[in-house]
Amino acid sequence: MNAALLKLLRRLVQKGSLTVVFSSGEKVVLGDGTGKPAAIRITDAQAERAILYDPGLKFGEMYMEGRVVVEDGDIFEVLSIIKSNGVEKAATFANSIVALGHVLRQQVKSRLPVNRNRYNVAHHYDLDGKLFNLFLDEDWQYSCAYFHPPGISLDEAQRAKKRHIAAKLLLEPGQSVLEVGSGWGGMAMYLAESSGVEVTGITLSEEQLKVSRERAERRGLADRVRFELQDYRTMQGRQFDRIVSVGMFEHVGIGNYGAFFRKMKELLKPDGVMLLHSIGQVYKPWATNPWIEKYIFPGGYIPALSEVLPRVESTRLLVKDIEILPMHYAWTLRAWRERFVARREEAIRLYDERFFRMWEFYLAASETAFLYDKHFIFQLQLSPSLETVPVSRDYIEAKERELLEFEKTRRRLELVAV
Description:
This protein is of the alpha/beta class. The chain is 49% helix and 18% strand.
């Protein structure tokens, strides 16, 4: 048994019930026995040493490689026990030095002039579309849903998210809209159909570009919704009435926030409105979890609002509205994780067992970040103009009701057509 790892685990897991079977065969029950129990087995002494030395990176890697095996419960329940106790209790002098090294590397990388954006995006978003079809909603919305009212389905919540954002954009027929990070095209098509606007969606993912264009063509929207393989930083000579960006700001990088908002102001008309939807957290993290950064979102960073708002203010853009959505992504990730795990065999056929465990760990760890690490979604509504946005928020709910009627009418027409 690795005595140093056992000491760390005893200090960490004081609440809950986690059984650990070490590579020696020795079994230890940790915690106070409350809550749903879970159990793991570590298969070899080298894996134990790796977790002790660099838990932020190596615990996930050992799970991916099948060297940490969950024998009771699932990986979400294991991570929930760990996170609910406070991972800072696992800090030692040695692994704190390793963690500091991860922070320094990410800080330097975020400020390098080398453009890694296209590589970083391709690493995640150019995966086989069949993978995302395993767990996303019918419109392939790969960002936080809006569970309003609570308890609605994932599909309903993703429609509610599009409706909520459209309402905040104050759209009028004929306006031009730029979507920065257009995904598989669902938001752009919704805005065009529901509000009569023309949308330009930009992405750095060739796979998403292909799918988006095909979807717009099938929906008869190719004349009003155009998708481009385009980096926002190199856009020139155009201004838009509205800008929307959903789930893209996490990839901008902490060293680029000032440049991002300066470009958004340049691309926005003087009386325009921008809606930015992003993950945030309550404190400056300095770096992304090293496992997430290495395997899932290279170059990603989840900011505190205190890191974002000064960069907004430096451009003289006006903050017209800030909304915090504290639990909606936890519910979204739970729906995604349950759908993904239910189609485990299909995911393994697409890639392999190691890939399945990697994505299961990613979805479970992300869900616990919103449950225990105080992550949230923020929506910033920005404008250069003092007059463009109403002085009270009543217009949002009124517009959402109008958009909901549009959705109901469209669905009735679709049913008749079938």
